[in-house]
Amino acid sequence: MLSCFKSYDLRGRLGDELNEDIAYRVGRAYAQYLSARRVAVGGDVRPSSTVLKQALAEGLMAGGADVIDLGMTGTEEVYFAAFHADVDGGIEVTASHNPLDYNGMKFVRRGARPISGDSGLRSIQALAEANDFIIVARPGRLEQRSFRADYIAHLMGYIDPARFQAPLTLVVNAGNGAAGPVLDALEAALGQAGVPLRLIKIQHEPDGAFPNGIPNPLLPERRQATIEAVRAHGADMGIAWDGDFDRCFLFDDQGGFVEGYYIVGLLAQAFLARHPGEKIIHDPRLVWNTIDVVDKAGGVAVQSKTGHAFIKERMRAENAIYGGEMSAHHYFRDFAYCDSGMIPWLLVAELLSASGRRLSALLQDRIAAFPCSGEINYTVADAARACDRVLEHYRRLHPRVERVDGLSLDCGDWRLNLRASNTEPLLRLNVESRGKPELVAERVAEVEALLKTL
Asked: φ, ψ for residue 446 (rounded to 5)?
């Protein structure tokens, strides 16, 4: 049994959970399951990604697939290759924000359609575990190739250089991850287009030893360098990425960390200003601000279960122009419904420059109208029992109960979502209210007290 296969992707501790032999078997299984003839592979900056990617490529080639090695990439560059080039799919070797002794893989098929869970990942797992593969007539060949220039040109298509009026100074923190070279290429393209942006680069050079810590801006200790740089340079915005840069995290002009929830509303508003009446997909953890923004902008808000596979599937079904999760995953129809960590900050920068307003000013009314707790994680022995305990406590308030994803309770002036993580042994809590931050704090304290009684 290969324990590295998770709900959405592959992730495991180096050694017994994930090694070169397993990577080779995964390549063989992927090629056989898809009858793949051509596959794009990339890897993040971790030292182990190079050897695992090579073993993966050897497995793919042994399974009859030609391999395009994209080099060091972010996950979205593999997504781009999967819908831009004539390939049967793509695989990114990455553990994103996990510790250095972990690695993993993210899979898509042709057109960058996700492979996860019941959409094929379990079948690939079964083939890799059986380790009994068909013999192919011709092994595949390896080609080194980059689509980065095409990818950068695609990113530039999301903005209108003419709308950039006021010059902006942005702090960009690649976290010693793979984002640095892409930021350099984007900076050059923006300069050629006459976009008045100045990038202050920190922790910029790719370094697989992660000397500044694991690139995970959700951790408060990983935010401080960005906050200090924004304040020191009087920047208009700060941006930081995780290890494979499929998520970006924004800091306002005062250095304040911006919850991803409010960025979903901001991007929804930006898209609906240009494309009124379109559908916007959101997750069920925090919803009121998004629904309010979308309704007022003349769009249609559609709720989906949390997780990239569910969001992408719902976006395709609804032909939604944009989808956002409060966890800083943002999905775009024109990016094959995939998530990108580069498109969001470009759109927000355009909005700031065109409006001449500060990010803190753009968000303050929304944050005041719908204050939230942000996501709080708890370690519990039994997540289902914990949810039942919380439901029983609040049943006296006659809440509207939803089970779209975990437990959601709507009590009119406040609501909460409590759900077990699909990727970690954690219970995640989100609370929001209608203009009452003190109520958010009270409900968080109540839930924490309930969890301690289990």
From this structure: -65, -45
CATH number at residue 52: 3.40.120.10
pLDDT digits (tens, 9 = 90+) for 61-72: 999 999 999 999
For 31, counting Cβ atoms within 10 Å of its Cβ (0-12 exposed, 13-18 middle, 19+ buried), the class is buried
What Rg value do the Cα atoms of the chain yield, rounded?
A: 22
Which residues are within 8 A (CB) of 158 and not within 5 positions of it... i.e. 6 or more apart?
332, 334, 343, 346, 347
Cross-strand bridge partners of residue 400? 410
Active site residues: 96
CA distance 125 to 382: 27
Q: In what order do the strands lie in the sheet with 248-251?
A: 197-202, 168-173, 237-241, 248-251
Neighbouring residues of 386: CB distance < 8 A, sequence distance ≥ 6: 378, 380, 418, 427, 450, 451, 454
- pTM for the predicted model, two decimal places: 0.96
Instruction: Compute the Cα dihedral for 372, 368, 158, 229 and give only its sign.
Output: negative
CA dist 172 and 202 (Å) reads 6
- Does residue 341 sit in the same domain as residue 264? yes
Per 3-state DSSP, the chain is made up of helix, strand and coil in percentages (nearest 5) of 40, 20, 35
The pLDDT confidence band at residue 116, using thresholds 50, 70 and 90, is confident
Q: Could you tell me if 447 and 401 lie in one domain?
A: yes
3-state secondary structure of 111: helix
Beta bridge partners of 390: none
Tell me how far apart the alpha carbons of residues 333 and 377 are, in angstroms, rounded to a whole number. Answer: 31
